[in-house]
Amino acid sequence: MLRAKKRYEVRTAGDRVLSVSASPVGAVTPEIREMAEKMISCMAAFDGIGLAAPQYGESLRLIVIDVPLSEKEAAAGLTEFEERMYGAMPMALVNPEVTGFSDAVCEREEGCLSVPQIWAPVVRPERIAFRAQLLDGSFIEGECGGLLARCIQHETDHLDGILFTDRLSPDAARRISGQMQQLLESGRHCNFRRVTRK
Ligand code: ZN
C-alpha cells in the first residue's frame, strides 16, 4: 500500500505570530485536542523535540513536547514526576506556566524549528517548577530539570513571543547575526513558511 506524503509547515523567524504573546486556551475542546495531535505529527515530521502553537501558526498557549531521556540523565536519577513526564511523551501541555526557577543556571546549545540550521548556547535556570493542563482536562504541577526543563522553558518562551536567539550573550548573538540576516531574508521570499513532506 502506498501512502501520499503529507505536507507539514512551521513558521520561521520574522513571522509576526512568533513575536507576539499568545492567547490562553479557553477550554480543552475536541478542536484543541485535534490541533495538538496535528502539532505532534508536525513536530515528528521535522524531527523536533518541542513545538509551540505559534510556530504552527496559531497564537494560542499550547505546546507539544517529545523530549528524549538521555542515558546520562537516567543514570543521574529522576524524580517521580520526571519519570511520569518522560513516560507520557509525546505530550501536549495546555496553558503551560513556569512558576519557579532554580538559582542555578546552565548553558546548553539550542536550536529551533523556526530558526533552522542555527544553533547557539543559551543560559537558563537548571530546574523549573511548572503547571499545565493535559488534553484529558486534568492538571499537572511539578518540578523538573535537565533537557525537559530546558525544552519547556524554550517552548513557553514561544508563547511570550521570545525566541532562543533573543536570549543569547552579545558574543553568541554576533556570531549568528549573519545567518539570522540570511534567514530573515529568505523567509521574506516564502512568507516565513518552512515546509517538509513525510
Ligand atoms: Zn523553538
User: What is the CATH C-level name of the domain at 7-101 and 127-162?
Assistant: Alpha Beta
Note the run of SSEs as H and E.
Answer: EHEEHHEEEEEHHE
Unique ligands:
zinc ion
CATH-defined topology of the domain at 7-101 and 127-162: Peptide Deformylase
Q: Level of helix content?
A: 25-40%
Low-confidence stretches: none
User: Structural class per helix/strand content?
Assistant: alpha+beta
CATH architecture of the domain at 7-101 and 127-162: Alpha-Beta Complex
Q: N- to C-terminal separation?
A: 16 Å
Taking the sheet with the most strands, its summary is: 5 strands, antiparallel
Q: What is the number of E strands?
A: 9
- The proportion of strand residues reads 25-35%
How would you concisely characterize the structure shown here?
With 198 residues, this protein is of the alpha+beta class.
